[in-house]
Amino acid sequence: MNIFSEVKEHLTTRQVAESYGLHIRRNGTACCPFHDDRHPSMKVDQNYHCFACGVGGDVIDYTARMYGLSQYDAAKKLIEDFGLPIHTEAMSGEEKERLRREKEERIRIIQIKKRFSRWCEETIELLKDALIQIEYSGELLYGKPPDVIFSKDYAMMLHAEPIINYWLDILCMGSEQEKKELFMQGRKEVEQIAGNVRKWSRCLMERCRESA
Ligand SMILES: [Zn+2]
Question: Which residues of the chain carry a pLDDT beneath 50?
């Protein structure tokens, strides 16, 4: 069965014409909307026919004439307007589009999850490195003059140590939710502080070399 006959199975012209605003008398006659009709010349039931101007046809034809649509577009309009359970090509097109979007979204989510777990692994290494650098910097300071020991670089490193430990705790032992929050909100700060530790330890090494 094609969509035309399916639509016609669900709807009468009378039902549709009325719902699209045609006043139909009890005896099934109406003033024809397709010519200047003063006295009801149109008979409307399953189909319609105007005895004055001669137009007539089925519910799809009525809708097409009323809205200046093709027969196919009129059938689609009826399916939409009356919520008919009829599958049209246009709908399957929409369906295809919906499925395509869903698939894209699934791929996107998988990629984000991959990126997230890669980030967790890399960040654990990054932060461990930072802690090692801080520890190594501390060892470097043995026997160094006070101006090196009290340098701003080393103070900054010590200052950063607790937060680095805190992040490592989250990444190694925290809940998925805590890790995600760190990934979403703390990513930049983590990288920045790890980068700073590298910079500070380089500066400190330089000063140690100079003072030696
Ligand atoms: Zn007419």
Answer: none
Q: How far is the CA of 66 from the centre of ligand 1 (A)?
A: 12
Q: How far is the CA of 202 from the centre of ligand 1 (A)?
A: 93
Q: With respect to residue 100, please indicate whether it lies within any of the assigned structural domains.
A: no
Residues 12 and 75 both lie in one domain: yes
Among 86, 101, 124, the domain-final residue is 86
Q: Could you report how far apart the first and last alpha carbons of the chain are, in Å?
A: 94
For residue 29, list its beta bridge partners.
43
Alpha carbon of 26 to ligand 1 centroid (Å): 19
Beta strands in the chain (DSSP E): 29-30, 42-44, 48-50, 56-57
Q: Tell me, what's the pLDDT at 147?
A: 82
pTM: 0.52
Do residues 13 and 30 make contact, with C-beta atoms less than 8 angstroms apart? no
Is residue 207 located within the same domain as residue 118?
A: yes
